[in-house]
TrEMBL record:
Domain of life: Bacteria
GO molecular function, one term: 5-formyltetrahydrofolate cyclo-ligase activity
Protein name as catalogued: 5-formyltetrahydrofolate cyclo-ligase
Family recorded in the similarity comment: Belongs to the 5-formyltetrahydrofolate cyclo-ligase family.
Origin species: Candidatus Enterococcus ikei
A Pfam family of this chain: 5-FTHF_cyc-lig
UniProt cross-references to NCBIfam families, sorted A to Z: MTHFS_bact
EC number(s) on file: 6.3.3.2
Alphabetized InterPro entries for the sequence: FTHF_cligase (IPR002698), FTHF_cligase-like_sf (IPR024185), NagB/RpiA_transferase-like (IPR037171)
Length: 179
């Protein structure tokens, strides 16, 4: 199946799960607990995540936990040249919605991506090997080409789909936390 069709199927599955909030919240709790008990989270001092769209995994859980443990929490901003810069976010950080509907931090200090210990990579469709299909902009694919740290994704079982051809530029995340 081609990526565009898989992306539509993945979005439909995520929106179905969003329409079943009790199930979605249960899965988010299970996935979060698995992550929080994993050495990749425990060792990380600087963690980069995204602010979710309403049908995506609720990363606010990660922000709260990270801040309570004294971790530096970062969020990306997509630049005009299709790259990601990462910015330190605090509980008082203000966010602004982009034309794509994604919320990005405003006036948050940019930090070097080299300090990221754990990058939580978003996606719409995943294979069990960690390959992913995102929204199609290629931002994370380009970033992962030079990033050397730990990567993981927080995945609902509804997002797993094995029937697609991985391309040469596709890079897998190292760990999937699935429920």
């Amino acid at each position: 199946m081609e990526k565009a069709r898989l992306r539509k199927l993945g979005l439909r599955n995520l929106k179905w799960l969003h329409d079943h909030p009790t199930l979605k919240e249960q899965k988010e709790r299970e996935i979060s607990q698995s992550l929080f008990n994993d050495p990749c989270w425990e060792k990380a001092q600087t963690i980069a995540i995204t602010k979710p769209l309403d049908f995506e995994f609720n990363t606010h859980i990660l922000l709260s936990k990270g801040w309570s443990e004294g971790k530096k929490m970062l969020m990306p901003i997509a630049t005009k040249d299709r790259k990601l810069t990462f910015h330190l976010v605090e509980p008082e950080t203000i966010f602004e919605k982009t034309a794509f509907g994604v919320e990005e931090p405003v006036a948050a200090p940019e930090v070097s991506a080299e300090i990221i210990d754990l990058l939580v990579v978003p996606g719409i469709v995943f294979t069990h090997e960690g390959f992913r299909i995102g929204f199609g902009g290629g931002y994370y694919d380009r970033f992962l080409q030079q990033y050397q740290g730990e990567t993981c994704s927080l995945v609902f079982s509804e997002q797993i789909q094995e029937s697609w051809q991985v391309e040469s530029f596709d890079l897998p995340v190292k760990r999937l936390f699935i429920s």
